Amino acid sequence: MTFIIGCCFGSFGYLLATRLPKNSSLFPPSHCEACNTRLSWLELIPLLSFLLQKGRCRHCQTKIPLDYLIAEITCGLLFTLCLNYSPANPIITCFWLYSAWLLSISDYYFKILETSIFLVTSLVLWLGQSYLKMPFHWQTFLYCLLFAALFSYYYREKLGVGDLLLLLAWSPWLSFWQFSMLLFLSSSFGLLYFIVAKLLQKNSDRLPFIPFLSCGLFLVLHFNKTIHALFILAWELP
Ligand SMILES: [Zn+2]
């Protein structure tokens, strides 16, 4: 059931994350990008419509991008994992990672931090965490401020202002260890992607970094103890 709910949020979120950066209205509701036919509710059921129509528009037979399906499935999995297996408060963890997922989609397609999604979700995250009386990690916040200041001074072109703002919004709700792991994991993923892209000779001028930050956040929120144990193990190896 949580998977289905996640898929529905995925379907709506994909629309939000791809329309808001273009300043296009959320109305009229979904239509085929190729023939502009307005889609009926039968064609808007997450997963099912795509599979029943064999990935094609019912009216003009144009292929529907696979991205829709991938977005719905990843969001469905995200909700299932967060709501059933999250070690912290499942609702706030789910909301936090869903917002990261939305921002990742905007960053992936438009290489920006979508301001409206960022501001609204950060505000809800801060209010929610404060309401639940979660510890505010001043140390991490100040460390992140220092990191952001140094980075924007020396390496402005490597990491965008958007990525730094997002890190600042997340930082007080992570322990110092979690935040350090987040930086380590996301930059490792970024580096790995960069190497693979170079090997495949795919040229990209700027890497969308929010998807890597989001993967790192997912791991530190769910597998903090495992990562910690692995690190201690690696440290003690001769
Ligand atoms: Zn069509």
Automatic annotation (TrEMBL):
InterPro entries: Prepilin_pept_A24_N, Prepilin_peptidase/N-MTase. Pfam families: A24_N_bact (PF06750). Residues 4-83 form the Prepilin peptidase A24 N-terminal domain. The keyword Secreted does not apply. Keywords: Membrane, Transmembrane, Transmembrane helix. It comes from the Bacteria. The chain crosses the membrane at residues 69-88, 108-128, 140-156, 176-197, 209-235. This is Prepilin peptidase.
